[in-house]
Write a structure and sequence with these properties.
about 400 residues, alpha/beta, 6-stranded mixed β-sheet, 14 helices, binds flavin-adenine dinucleotide
Length: about 400
Amino acid sequence: MSKIATAIVIGGGIAGPVAAMALRKAGIEASVYEAYPRPSEGIGGALALEPNGLSALGVIGAADAVRAVATPITRSVLALGNRQLGEIPSLPGLPPRHVIERADLHRILDEHARTAGVRFEHGKRLIGVEESKRGIKARFEDGTAASADMLIGADGVRSTVRGLIDPTAPGASFTGLLGFGATVDAGLDLEPGTMTFAFGRRAYYLYWRTRDGRTAWGANLPAAKPLTLREARALPTEHWLDTLRATYADDDPGACLARCTTPGNLQVVGALQIMPHVPHWYRGRMVLVGDSVHAPSNSTGQGASLAIESAVQLARCVRDLPDARSAFEAYEALRRSRVEGIAKRGAKINHSKAPSRVARVFMPLALPLMFKLMDLEKTMGAEQRYAIDWSARVGSAVRASAA
Ligand SMILES: Cc1cc2nc3c(=O)[nH]c(=O)nc-3n(C[C@H](O)[C@H](O)[C@H](O)COP(=O)(O)OP(=O)(O)OC[C@H]3O[C@@H](n4cnc5c(N)ncnc54)[C@H](O)[C@@H]3O)c2cc1C
């Protein structure tokens, strides 16, 4: 029986509400404190949930609501310039990847969490903590405070909690790419359920048909400087549109997608960042979850899915182990090797987003062959078939067996 009865969750993005819901399911009272003044303010763009992410959402009962509004992707295709290189193989027997508007995912998580009894407070930016033998007190920028038995840092790549746990913790690294997205009426005849990953002449992009027959696309623009979301949005949208149109001018359908994008529907995401190895995941009554501790490259498509998995696993550990220390230790043992392995895979793919001239010559020959020879089950099976057994008890032995 856990000594932990209450939890403060910092961050109302993806990991935060999921952790709070899973804790509620485990009988622990959880409240979410989010820096933004209102739910989902300024949230745009789409993200993909892999089968493992959807499976973890199933534990907290939110998977069906996601499936009801998301676009299932049953086929992934690779393209170089204007030429299709072939289909990326997928694992048999798994449900498809689902692409969902970020705002829809936030709304679903918010609704489910409130129904489960989770309390949300907006406009609460964490600035510090005070820990004692009896509990932890979170201090917010607006001068208010909240107390509980534990505090979860689900506050994203620029996490404040990470620095409170370890002032020497590394910050996020810039991938060298800025993210953009839009859903447009491009009049393209795209096959439903197919997502195309395209190496354009100057930059990488991806596109798919939405449920309503329009085309959604995402662009990864090489950039020397890691602009934050705020910095990127401070520049006029027209500036970014001109840059995107010049970058994809020689690509088909990249040129058309950039042309159809308007200042009104362009989503400026800012620098794409990854978290390097974080030495300390927890200290005292504080622990990290989601992007704050393990943001992989967006090329893995696993950031949100891993954040959801970690949130559910953390709640299981808190439920089953007697105190914060043993719960956090078991949680790290369950999660670290998995998330770091996926981050490693992502770092490799990231480099290949801007292939050299030589690589462009060899890719049409090498990639189909590589797909044919690839042991898919070995490379992707463990990643996508991961499923959490909520009813199974987490024993302290997990430290030794670290699944
Ligand atoms: C362009 C792009 C495309 C992506 N595509 C995919 C994809 O296809 N598939 C996928 O799985 N992942 C994708 N990701 C990654 C995914 O968005 C993240 O992994 C996911 O959002 C992590 O969730 P999180 O809750 O840990 O962090 P976040 O979603 O970043 O949430 C953190 C929250 O904490 C709040 N916060 C921060 N500091 C404080 C504070 N001091 N006090 C209170 N609140 C605070 C923030 O306002 C925010 O709401 C993509 C990311 C980008 C940038």
